[in-house]
Every structure is written in structure tokens, then in C-alpha cells.
Amino acid sequence: MKITFLGATKTVTGSNFLIEACGKKFLIDCGMWQGKVELEEQNAQDFEFNPKEIDFMLLTHAHIDHSGRIPKLYNEGFRNKIYAHKATCDLCALMLPDSGHIQEMENEWKNKKRMRRGEVEIPPLYTAEEAARSLEIFEPVQYDEIIEITQDIHVRFNDAGHMLGSSIIELWTKEEGEETKTVFTGDLGNNDIPLLDSPTMIESADYLIMESTYANRLHIKNEEKAELFLDIVSQTLDNGGSVVIPSFAVRKNTRNFI
Ligand SMILES: [Zn+2]
Prior knowledge:
binds zinc ion; alpha/beta; 27% helix; globular
């Protein structure tokens, strides 16, 4: 088995792994680069593989930094299945066309600037309509079921507790009579939080590919979080200030999903 790390390495976004095993080529995640301008410019670059040669894809969750280049993949000829949890498929049906809409809006603005500079207009990364078209290749799966992709490739999606549908993927590949188990955690949630279940405990793996965004810091204990939050709000109000609370949200036009 060969794994090529094409994104989310030394940075957080653009999650994309290419795996070659059992005579197949497949992807785990195909996310958008987000953040700095130089990073976002990478979205328009060619994939380091031929999308037409990819046999299937496994998607850990719907966040755009994991799913956002799927419509580009589709536009460039990828027509095989994308296995994802049912909730991930439902969320992608909202989020990918919305991402296409954002691409169109931003590109229109960039094209105006290009024209003022005497440069040619370029098309958006993908449109809302193209993103909607790519949804036809999604294949919904449930947690905890072993899925036979080929005789030698099996996978199981487990709850990662990070967002609705988020999955830790166990991958079993059998080559030359020997089975190897590789685990891709995708983004991981926390234990004992409201709204979401705790991440599933995976008991074994030969290889572990793990999200480590917050690996260099200690989280505050859950019971201390509310107290700390109230202290900050009270202190700020006592000082006559205003409190701005940023919130992670999955967005579809003006409606927010938490
Ligand atoms: Zn995420």
C-alpha cells in the first residue's frame, strides 16, 4: 500500500490522501484549501493524479476543507462512488452547492478586478449547478457496518463526534495474502459534550493517520468551561464592554446549522 499525503499536512485545510492498494487507486477526502490567499490559490491547480483514474473515494465528513474540491473532481471526470455517512451526504447536498455559489460570487468580483487590469476573465472553480450535479455519485453508508468495496478492500465508518455524520474510517486491505488495517481519524470531536456523541474508541490499527490540529495544547475540562465563559462575560460587561462570540457553524445561505 502506498499513501500520498496531498493536503492537510503542515497546515489544517485541503485534506486529501491518495491511496494505492490492491490494484486500486482511491482517495480519502478532497477538501478545499482555505485561509491565506496563497493557500486558496492552490484550489485552482491541477490534481496530482488523474481524476478519471480514481476507483472510489471515502469522505470523512462534510466540512468544506474535507469535501470542497469534490465538484472540481467531478468536473474533471471522476464518476465513481463517494462513500460517506448518510448525514454527510445530506449535509454535502446543502454545503457543496452553497460553496459553488460562493465561488461564483467571489469570482465575479475578482473578474471585475481582472478586467480593470486589462486581464482576461476566468471561470469560477465550480458553480452551484456543477456542485449539485456532483451529488449523484455519493453513496450513503451507516456507522458500524463493514462494507466490502472489493474482495480485498473493506471499510467501516465509526462516529468521530466532530459534527453530524463525521467518521473515523477503518480500512482493511489485503495484499499478497496479508491484511493491513489503516485508520484515518478525520477530524475528531471531544468526549462528553452536548449535541454530539463521543468519538468511537478504535482498539487496534497497523497504521494510524490522525488529525492533530490541537495536539500541542491541553483542553480545559468540560465542567470548567461554562464557569470560565461566564467569568469572561461578567468581567467584560462590568468593564462596560461588548462580548462578541464567534461560533463554528455549517452555513447554507442565511440559515445556520450548528
Ligand atoms: Zn471538520
